[in-house]
Amino acid sequence: MRAKARDRETNLLLHLLDEAFDRKAWHGPNLLGSVRRLSPDEAARRPASGRHSVQELVVHCAYWKYAVRRKLTGEGRGSFPLKGSNWFAREGRAALAAWPADRKLLREEHRKLRAAVETFPASRLSARAPGVSNSFRRLIAGAAAHDVYHAGQIRLILRLAVG
Question: Are 143 and 17 in contact (CB under 8 A)?
């Protein structure tokens, strides 16, 4: 669908998603930029005992893109490629080996969310999403804010690791 054919509000929401994820933004690094050059060791390192690694944050972000997309499309649960929900443990050698796939999962879930937003009827953006107290508009904008929040968190984790 061409940009002009889409509703202005849909275009704005897509812009927010893209800026938070992989486009140049005034606020600094976006989510993909914050992990772009990380080695598996850097991604798997925990800032402290009992805290999430950058890699776990990446998979968490992928999961929530999936969760928002499911609300938009009405898709049932259970189609996320990993078993579980919200937080997925990434530890040891398995974490190091999974890092490229986890980044790919994040990019793929962003692409799918973006496609769902592109085709979502603009006339339904203010409707309440099923099972939550938020509108579809708020869920989509929240997905963008979630990316920015975790991009900042990742940058802080990496900065603290350097000292």
Answer: yes
Length of the chain, please? 163
Closest CA to 20 of 81, 64, 77, 85: 64
The pLDDT value recorded for residue 163 is: 59
Nearest to 151 by CA among 66, 61, 64: 61
What is the value of pTM for the model shown? 0.92
Instruction: Kindly write down the DSSP assignment for every residue of the chain, as one continuous string.
Output: --GGGS-HHHHHHHHHHHHHHTS--TTS--HHHHHTT--HHHHH--SSTTS--HHHHHHHHHHHHHHHHHHHH-PPS--SSSSSSS-----HHHHHHHHHHHHHHHHHHHHHHHHHHHHS-GGGTTSBPTTSSSBHHHHHHHHHHHHHHHHHHHHHHHHHHH-
Q: Say yes or no: domain 3-162 is CATH 1.20.120.450.
A: yes
